[in-house]
Amino acid sequence: MAVLLEKIQWSDQPLLTETIDAAWEAEVVSVMGMMPSSLRRAAASPWVRRAYFDAMRPAVRSLTDAQIELAALVTSQENACRYCYGVGRASMRMLGFTDEVIDQVEGRAQLAEADQREREMLAFCRNLARSKPRPSRDARRRLEEIGFTPIQVTELAYIVASAGLCNRMATLLAVPPELELERMVPPGNLWKKLSSWLPGHAPSKRPKPPSYPEPSAQGPFAVLTGILAGSPAAGVLQATLQGALESSTLPRRTALIMFAVIARTLDCDVCEAFAVDRLEEEAMPKAALTGVLATLASKDLTAEESLLVPWARETVWMPEEPKRIQERTRPLLEALGPTRVLEAIGTAAIANACVRLAMLLQ
Amino acid sequence: MTWLLAALLAASLVGLAAAVAFLRRAGREIHRHRTALARTVERVEHIERAFQRFAPLDVVERFAQGDVVHEPSHRTVTVLFADLKGFTPMSERIAPAVMVDMLNGYFRAMNAALEAHHGHLSRIMGDGLLALFGAFEKNTWQSADAVRAALAMREALARYNVELAARGLERLEFGVGIHVGDVVAGVVGSDHFVEFTVIGDAVNTAARVESLTRQHGVDILVTDDVKAALDDRFTLRAMPPVAVKGKSGAVATWAVESAKD
Fold it and tell me: Rounded mean pLDDT of A10-22?
């Protein structure tokens, strides 16, 4: 359910303090022109901050800037992410869209009364972000019937997945809204405003997307990266998954169990099978995992896992009042410590992205 | 010639002024429409948010788009029935306004407990309520959620009773029955009144089990089918099987005592 910006209930207390890392800040500023507070709060984990930063500037090749912004804004609305919603509006303004145009986009996102092509696109993005249930094969077919190419549909799903990743990071970390950025008025004059409507005078460019080598068609992540075959996003996904599952901070087994729980919540066979296979490599027998997935508890779980398993389930559907999940996340900080809780949040965010992408295989 | 040019210039200026005035009017009109659109967006948003409490989101949105036909579907749902014990005689002793206020506070407290455990308050019937788990979205852990919700309702009622006592009002007691089974879920009604609801034996059984709480002197009862979905963190006590209306055999139930996190 889309929520208007000012109606979102957001915690006043951020979960983590900002971590200052000069090299990291220099890299972010060189690409974004600024250092968002959210990336400072994620800075303590190399893979989480990288995944978050990559998701903020999705690597796609077949969608226009307007489609990317629109899909991301709709996703942030559906996930009731106060932080991303505000930043999304501000970044559209920075890209040169006028407030009137942004209001129209927001209005279109709410009422879906644009042309059929845009309406179907918005409906697809909203339904995928919401995933109650995930859009069916018919929804994808409808998009293709009205002119979206298969790679565009794939990349739309990726935008929803990566925006959802950002939404979960910002929400679960309870990052305070970037009010200064939201209030910022981009420099411009009458000519700039008028010329932005002319063909070829599109607003200034988006931050440069990340670039990774094309992933291998074999290997542990191929089943998931294969979903994005043909898109530069496939390399990003592989790098993110590698980071998440090769971290020395949160045990690989813990991350995979969380992955399996999130897959089960959304009834995603593909992602659950991926987690089950990897957990077998971690010497966790299928029967033990079956017990965990049946009851969200088991004597085989560590104390840390016992806390994370039921919490992981709660990250699948972002509540209308984000404050609820933010309050639910706070006790984890005391139990796990700041870096492990950050990695748990990153793991939940990437697992949720994967279950949404995997709808393309259903 | 000069006069002609002056006349043309004057005519052009008049035309330009008229055009500017027209554009200003059009601008004001657009602004008015935009404001109206923003208000409509807010109203639609408000209505959709209100209605998502009563039906799954996709159903609400399809209704909002004018699609009044909803295909019913079979699904496994956990049904929770709750009823206040002795409320009818109590309501005869208190003023109607006080009674309504007591009930509103009770339903608010119960709804919060249900929502915190993935339940949806489906219907209020006098002092009774019907809540569903797994009807709006697939939920693997629906029976455990329902039992945890019932335990949260027990705690919420205890807190509410403290509040009522402070106001000099009588305490409330409830009975809760929980059963899981297959139902048909869909939008039912006429042109003038429709609701999203579930129909099936599971609903009737949950209601019958709720009525057994009086006979067994307990507040929360679950059936064998619900018990089968629970793990050893839940402490249950077996109740003697009892024959109930509409069931051929005796119904075995379990009183819920507590649950560990």
Answer: 95
ipTM here: 0.83
Q: Say if residue A319 is preceded by a cis peptide, omega within 30 of 0.
A: no
First to last CA, chain A: 24
Beta carbon pairs, A and B, within 8 Å: 52
- At B177, give phi and psi (nearest 5°): -120, 135
Indicate which of B140, B142, B227 best probes the interface with A, i.e. most A CBs within 10 Å of its own CB. B140
Give the Å distances, CA to CA, from B165 to B89, B161, B171.
18, 6, 7
A320/B49 Cβ within 8 A: yes
Most confident of the ranges A131-135, B63-67, B206-210? B206-210
Contact A124, A143 (CB under 8 A): yes
Question: What's the gap in Å between the CA of A203 and the closest CA on chain B?
Answer: 23
Nearest to B231 among A2, A110, A297 (CB): A297
Estimate the share of chain B in helix, then strand, then coil, as percent rounded to the nearest 5. 50, 25, 25
> What percentage of chain A has pLDDT greater than the value 90?
66
Contact A297 B233 (CB under 8 A): yes
